[in-house]
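Re-run with default settings, no changes from the original entry. Doing this only to confirm the output is reproducible before filing.
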Amino acid sequence: MGPIAKRLPRKLARLWPRYWRPKWKLNARLIGEIFSLSLFAKAIYLSAVHPSDWAISINRRWRIFRYETGLPIAIILLAICSGIAFFGWRAAQFAAGDLWPELGGMVFDIFVILIVYEGLQHRRFRREAIQRQQDIVDDFKRWDSEEARRRISGAIRRLNRMGETAIDFAGTTLSNFAFAKEGIGSIKGSTFFDGKWGQAIGDSSVQLNDVEFDRVDLRSVKFSPFEPLQFMGEVAPRHCKITNCSFRDVSLNGVIFNGAAIVWSDKPPDEHEHAEYDEEGEPFWVPDSYGPFHHCDLTGASFVGCHFENADFRGASGLGDADFYDSTGLENAIFSDEAAKFLAMQTLERNVVRLPTVDEAFGQWNR
């Protein structure tokens, strides 16, 4: 036995790691490897290019538990005190009077104060921190300026680090902004136009100009749930205006653009690439530019009642699984081929989402 183990009672000495059974040592080593942050994160992030939501959630919660709370130290202290109280009582050969009840009360205090209360406090502090960052977005989202863009991007990055991606962008006026270049990887579940309109205070109309949503997680983002004045036809003013924006290398699964005006100022080029020739005279294609929906998966996206102008869907996939019911301008859009255009055009006749009636629209206005 080691010098420390010799000083312990026989039953406690058996718990010394050096004298563990081989099976115990193996299990302890495996548990240590599983919960080692570097190996755990590597296993998650190298498993796929886009890790699953549960893997990201587990990694984030483990990082918060390990670095942002005092729970690990509290749990270790609880385990030590519980071990002393239990094994010491089992190994003691003499009556200790009120010692063991006192130790039991101390263990209970550690559990309640250092673990339960610490968990509740951290939850409250986290909610307050998320609300502070959302307040920053609220303060600057209606002010289209360079300073506002810097402050908004910083607040969104901090929200992403805290695991919050559903951000309230209602009433935003944003231009010349690139989410990925600002270090923002996800705005999943966020809301832009939330349906409030015609109000002197609180109008949530959205204007997005030259905004790049490339390589950002946009799943379940609600750009516009409906256009309140859709019954007026093409002359209706749009409460969600998306101008010269791009959605490259993203998935629009569950994204809602209903009633939005999606417009590009310039007509798309005839070709996005040109031919060059190698030394043997064989041609190869060199890209000059990319369309706004290049490598974009439109599966599950809803464009009900949208107005398109100078749209370019070349390079997009999932056109047959998107919903373009009652959209205008789609017939003038450019597609990769006639088959892709046919898939998109056939959804014009499929009514998947019911548009609001006149009474519903004005009822929303009077709310």
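Confidence is low (pLDDT under 50) at residues 4-8, 33-50, 351-355. The longest strand covers residues 206-212.
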